Amino acid sequence: NILTILLKDSSKFDAQVRTVMESPFPEVHMNEEISRAVEYFAKKEPAVLVKDDAGLIGIVTRFDVLGYLSR
To answer: With contact defined as beta carbons under 8 Å apart, do 68 and 48 qualify?
Structure first.
């Protein structure tokens, strides 16, 4: 796992964040239905960014949605 690798080679901590970045998470508007986020989770996205008209306001993970649905 990534933490084990970092602990074995501390020089990796000196790398810039952009060298380890992956594609950005998809975005949904806060007023969209949960089904829109679920569509991304079905495509194996682990999370979606939530925006309002002013910008980014949060993140929702598949675990957040599973927790909501299990209530």
So the answer is: no
Q: Where are the beta strands (DSSP E) in 1-71?
A: 27-29, 47-52, 55-61
Structure token digits, residue 13: 């901590």
DSSP 13: G
Average pLDDT value for the chain: 91
The answer to whether 29 and 55 have CB atoms below 8 angstroms apart is no
Q: In this structure, what token pair is assigned to residue 25?
A: 């998470």
49 forms bridges with which residues in the sheet? 27, 59
Record the pTM.
0.74
Residue 20: CA atoms inside 13 Å, Cβ hemisphere, count?
Answer: 9
